[in-house]
């Protein structure tokens, strides 16, 4: 958002990034504690312990790492854009791989336990998010890392890519909250309303994920935190062109 | 977001607003059909029919009307800011009143049916959203309609108000999806996985709400759709000052 007040200073960035990382790591840890301590730990054998990998992978991959992949543009504001772009793509690839493992875990568990797939709102939203996230990653790779598209197309796609990234992060968080609610009602419906520790822990996890989303979107959309324009960046298109054409890139 | 591509034209605004209204109205209608047809209709007697008012009020008030209250700044871009500001406050007030009716409905039903309150993630997120929404409305009234705050404070609060508004709209949609999931698992858990019409209808409602959110946030944050700066607006502070001081406002 560009309506930044005149009283916010850029020095808030490190504190906000620190807060986002604390909340993000706490979310991943809490998911691990929930599945590890309350739900019997992890395995890869089609059992409920294999299902337990699903929440952990989704919170780690599709929420935390997806957020951090976007954040690299704000944290490394003054590094060479080429490196930041590569890091953005690599962290997103890691997020994608971990998310796919999380998806395989739940489908594999469903097959073993003879539970139908894809009937719930959580599954519909989650599948849409993962498919759009994969599409966004491939498009980003083609348009920006190996620019096969023309400058015109790249310029037209950039705002869609940026807006889509924020939407996907928020959707991933929304899907996580749906998953938390589903898991609690499937597992502890009779005791959930008596404020058992598992229910409270999972609710707190939900609030942490909302907090992670709010801080991340604030950092990402705040005008002062954006990368300053750099005339050198114009030359980078040519730089990457040499990569796609097989030539050696010049020394930066 | 200010990273608008050079190829998006402002003429897209009416189409996007039209799409948002179609999806928004469809969401309200679908909620009404779900509660009216599948869940036995509406009443105000502490029964399950009183609960049924809760989803309808929340989708109508906290989602659809909250979104439209924000949208007035984009739809009436060239009207006098005073009028647009008043309309923004009035539609938000309507949203607030309808949301409070929705909250009373569910607490009243819980009391009659002896169901505990405030234990689920949906209730935590929903309560946080309504409280923050009420706070935001009161702050907006004090800061912008009856400016008791200094120009310095108003300028500092404006970006928080704008960012907070978008966050609250997205939170309201997220809470609705949690509510849909809760309601389905409480009501039709044994048949949800066999793709019954009620389950599919509620899932489609969830997707429509996501679509409403995406289109709304796109319109709200797109730089070209913002209100153009207007030197006349400076004078409006004085104009409203006269309201708070009891003097008659000058004719616009």
TrEMBL record, chains A, B:
It is found in: Cytoplasmic vesicle, Secretory vesicle, Chromaffin granule membrane. It is a multi-pass membrane protein. Keywords: Cytoplasmic vesicle, Electron transport, Heme, Iron, Membrane, Metal-binding, Translocase, Transmembrane, Transmembrane helix, Transport. The keyword Repeat does not apply. It catalyses: monodehydro-L-ascorbate radical(out) + L-ascorbate(in) = monodehydro-L-ascorbate radical(in) + L-ascorbate(out); Fe(3+)(out) + L-ascorbate(in) = monodehydro-L-ascorbate radical(in) + Fe(2+)(out) + H(+). The keyword Signal does not apply. Transmembrane reductase that uses ascorbate as an electron donor in the cytoplasm and transfers electrons across membranes to reduce monodehydro-L-ascorbate radical in the lumen of secretory vesicles. It is therefore involved the regeneration and homeostasis within secretory vesicles of ascorbate which in turn provides reducing equivalents needed to support the activity of intravesicular enzymes. This is Transmembrane ascorbate-dependent reductase CYB561. It comes from Sphaeramia orbicularis.
């Amino acid at each position: 958002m560009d309506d930044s007040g005149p009283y916010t200073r850029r020095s808030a960035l490190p504190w906000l990034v620190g807060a986002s990382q604390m909340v993000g790591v706490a979310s991943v840890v809490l998911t691990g504690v929930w599945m590890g301590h309350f739900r019997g730990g992890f395995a890869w054998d089609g059992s409920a312990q294999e299902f337990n990998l699903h929440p952990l992978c989704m919170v780690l991959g599709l929420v935390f790492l997806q957020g951090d992949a976007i954040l690299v543009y704000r944290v490394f504001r003054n590094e060479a854009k080429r490196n930041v772009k590569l890091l953005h793509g690599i962290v997103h690839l890691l997020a994608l791989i971990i998310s796919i493992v999380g998806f395989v875990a739940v489908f594999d568990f469903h097959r073993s336990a003879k539970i139908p797939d894809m009937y719930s709102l959580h599954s519909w939203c989650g599948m849409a998010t993962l498919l759009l996230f994969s599409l966004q990653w491939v498009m980003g790779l083609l348009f920006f890392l190996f620019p096969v598209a023309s400058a015109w197309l790249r310029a037209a796609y950039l705002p869609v890519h940026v807006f889509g990234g924020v939407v996907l992060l928020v959707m991933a968080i929304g899907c996580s909250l749906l998953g938390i609610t589903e898991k609690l009602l499937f597992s502890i419906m009779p005791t959930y309303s008596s404020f058992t520790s598992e229910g409270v822990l999972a609710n707190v996890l939900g609030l942490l994920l909302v907090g992670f989303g709010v801080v991340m979107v604030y950092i990402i959309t705040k005008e002062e935190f954006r990368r300053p324009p750099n005339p050198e960046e114009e030359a980078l298109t040519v730089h990457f062109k040499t990569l796609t054409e097989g030539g050696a890139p010049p020394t930066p």
